[in-house]
Amino acid sequence: MPFDLQPVLRGDLVGVRPLRPADFDELHEVARDPLIWDQHPVRDRHRLEVFTRFFAASLASGGALVVTSTAGDVIGSSRFHGYDQRRGEVEIGWTFLARSHWGGQTNGQLKALMLGHAFRFVERVVFLVGPDNRRSQRALEKIGAVRVGIRPDAAGHDSLLFEVRRPAGSTKSG
Questions:
Q1: Quick one: 30 exposed, middle or buried, by C-beta within 10 A (0-12, 13-18, 19+)?
Q2: What is the CATH number of the domain that holds 89?
Q3: Average pLDDT, the chain
C-alpha cells in the first residue's frame, strides 16, 4: 500500500483533510496573525503576498493538510513531506495553528494523528525546526520528539533535526 500523503484523519479535538484551493481565505485568516510567525524563519508569512506563495507551494507539495476544529472550522495547516521508502522516513512540518489553539492539547492530538498514520508506513518521522523557533522546539519535546542533529531544510537553511521513532511492537502495513 503506498503512503497516502493527504489522509483524512479525525480525533476528538481536531481533524485533518487534504488542502484544497478553496481553503485559501479561511487559512489566510488564521495565518494573518503576525505572532504565529514571530519565531519562524519566515517571519512575514502573515503578509498576503508571502502567504499566497506559501499556499501555492503547499498545494503543489501533494502532502499539505488543513487542520479543522471539531466544529469544522479551519484552525491551521500541516504537511507530510519527503517520504523516503528506502530510509523508512517521512517529514512532518510546515505546521501552524491559530493562537486560540496554542498551549492545550490541539497540537499534541494533531501530531498523534499524523504520527499514527505515518507509522503505518515508516520507522521514523523527522521534523526540521529553525534554531530560533523555541516554541516549536518545546512543542516537539512535548510530543516526545528527540533532537538528533542538524539538517538543511527545503530552502537550504540549517535546521534542528528532531525525530520520533515508531514504537516497538507496532507494525507497518505498507
A1: buried
A2: 3.40.630.30
A3: 94
